[in-house]
Amino acid sequence: MLEKVVSRSNLSFEEAREAFLQLFNENELRVAAFLSAVETKGVTPEELAGFASAMRELSLRIDLGDVCDTCGTGGDRSETINVSTASAILLSCFERVAKHGNTSVTSKSGSADVLRELGMKIELERDEAKSMVERTGFTFLFAPKYHGKLKKIMPVRRALGIKTVFNVLGPLCNPASPSRQLIGVSSEELVDKVSETLQMLRVRRAVVVHGYPLDEVNPRGKTLISEVDGDIEKYVVFPEDFGLEKSRIIPCSSPQESAMRLKAALSGGGSEEDLNFILMNSAMALFCAEERNLRECTEIVRECIESGRALRKLEEIVCASRNLS
Asked: 145 and 33 in contact (C-beta within 8 Å)?
């Protein structure tokens, strides 16, 4: 299959699935060549669905019932705070959330990095993950725990130092199979590809966002939205649609800084810029989960923060993870 991809030919769903399974029998040089060739050619929805299907086959599955997830592909090089993690914590005040994530590959701070800095135990066994979601409405599924086969691929990804198809596959391969997902993608091109892939994988409801250039909802300007709900509907939103004014994004340099700023925002303090960024993305997560009006979702999330409920939820999650028996 490597030769076919190098020649810029597209793979069918089944060819992509077989190629992905074969990847784990190849040496590092051929793995790097395949990942680079797919990135250069550009992945198709059929290929993404085939890769995701194979990755799901190889993963350790976990049944958590009806759960949501918020996740970005990364790769936008914007060095923002971990807003999808903040959104997941806030969403767990209303819905059961199984946050699937990893340490950083292409950014300064991955979801696992910031949750660890916040004090949470992240490497949960399956029974611990189930206990967490039952006790707090939130659990973290550390990708290496559930995708053990990928251990062979990780050094290649790090050595390449570029975004690869694995950045896109991560959000598509949550081992809990969430029924509702908010997925941020790092390019406009990926909006259609990921939406069509989710449709092929028969996800009940998803919202795919691209914030020019963020893989998040953009507080500075427009964000492209694709709702996947049987059909696919695309449109653009602006901060004003959330009842907010445009605001700048403050760069973030480390997991420690991200954790500090995230906690400050959840406690009702911190900068207005961080608060707006988190409000917009959390409102979109709630919109994905419950299909409410965006302005209504924004006010619900704001009240959650101002009442202290958001900070209490974070403290509850951290405490529960540290007291698992």
From this structure: no
d(CA 148, CA 159): 19
Q: How far apart are CA 69 and CA 288, in angstroms?
A: 10
What is the DSSP secondary structure assignment for residue 12, as one 8-state letter?
P
Token pair in block for residue 216? 């998040």
pLDDT of the residue at 283: 99
User: What are the strands, taking DSSP E only, across 80-136?
Assistant: 97-101
String of b and e for 164-173 (b: at least 16 CB within 10 Å)?
Answer: bbbbbbbbbb
Radius of gyration of the chain, Cα coordinates, nearest whole angstrom? 19
- pLDDT at position 158 is 85
Tokens at 137, concatenated:
């409405």
**pLDDT given for residue 245 in this prediction:** 97
- What is residue 167's predicted lDDT score, i.e. its pLDDT? 85
* Angstrom distance (rounded) from CA 106 to CA 108: 7
221 within 8 A of 241, measured Cβ to Cβ? no
pLDDT of residue 262: 98
Cα(305)–Cα(275) distance, rounded to whole angstroms? 10
pLDDT at position 76: 62
Token pair, residue 134, equals: 């039952």
Q: Is 168 helix (H, G, I), strand (E, B) or coil?
A: helix
| Token digits of residue 275 | 């608060």
Tokens of 280: 């917009």
Number of other residues whose CB lies within 10 A of the CB of residue 199: 17
pLDDT mean values, one per 10 residues, the chain (325 residues) = 81 95 91 93 96 95 97 80 97 98 74 96 97 98 92 87 88 96 96 97 96 96 97 98 97 96 96 98 98 96 98 98 89
Q: Which domains does the chain have, with CATH numbers?
A: 68-145+176-322 (3.40.1030.10)
Residue 61, classed as helix, strand or coil, is coil
Burial class (CB in 10 A: 0-12, 13-18, 19+), 304: buried
